[in-house]
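Case study: LLM class flavin-dependent oxidoreductase.
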Amino acid sequence: MKNVKFSTLELATVVKGDNLAGAMARTVESAQASEQYGFERIWLAEHHNMEYIASSATSLLIQHVASQTKQIRVGSGGIMLPNHAPLVIAEQFGTLETLFPGRVEIGLGRAPGTDQQTAMALRRNNLNTSFYFKDDVQALQQYLSADNHTSKVRAFPGEGLEIPLWILGSSTDSAYLAAELGLPYAFAAHFAPAMLGQAIEIYRANFKASEQLQEPYVLICANVIPANTNEEAQLLSTSLFNMFCGIITNRRAPLSPPTTEPIYAGIAEIEQAVQSMVSCTFIGDTPTLVSELSEFIARYQPDEIMTTNYIFDNQKRLDAFRLTADIFQKINNN
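Here is what the predicted structure looks like once written out:
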């Protein structure tokens, strides 16, 4: 088994009893812990009209996180490109790359990261922008390339910086696009695992080498809840399950303390819906997670696993970064 890199995804989630500023502070702590324990990168996700997620102004939060760390790569997971003009993203991330050279990257998604009404507000009532995702990705590449110096429209800062781009997805459409453009591919198995195997096969089978990438590169995002014992990990994981219940029932709430069992226990429809979203979730002590993640990695052969961390207790959450790093070191040393 090849060595697998490990990284983390942050949504700057508000926890019960705290606020948006506290969520941002926890995000910085996540980045600092990730850096301390050897994580490859930390990505921040763009979401809108969500009261308990503080990462809507994604590039600004990336700047804050990068300023509070020293070497870990910091990027977007993702920037929902149809919400933005490619030139604006080139300028924003060109600024970030100028401030933090060699540390910035851009994960790009097609979805709005919100509800349809908010998407209309973001896109000025033009919901057709998602149909031009490929064109927008290529426009962004052009703005960031040195070849753009003869264009009438140029990105300053940005031009010539060749900031790495990634394609994010949860479907086969994104797999085809990432393969066609020769870009690394990040699959959102942490909430939409259904097409994971099929999408990876399509990406690898259709990959075309590019200036940025010569061989396919697959990142899989999964929920990983480590603890000192299996029992403790199962208890901590109820915060994650209850959060997904809120998403499914449209009763969103701050990330809440663990419960003895999920709040939807016994409600078959919700149990089934939550399980379909979180089937790529790994819960347990170190030996359990080394075994289960090793099997998962052997099956899909990813180059990298990006972990989420929805643990309510702040110290246990920070401890989870140390445990996660130890788990991947053991996997890679086997």
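For the exam, be able to explain this: The radius of gyration is 19 Å.
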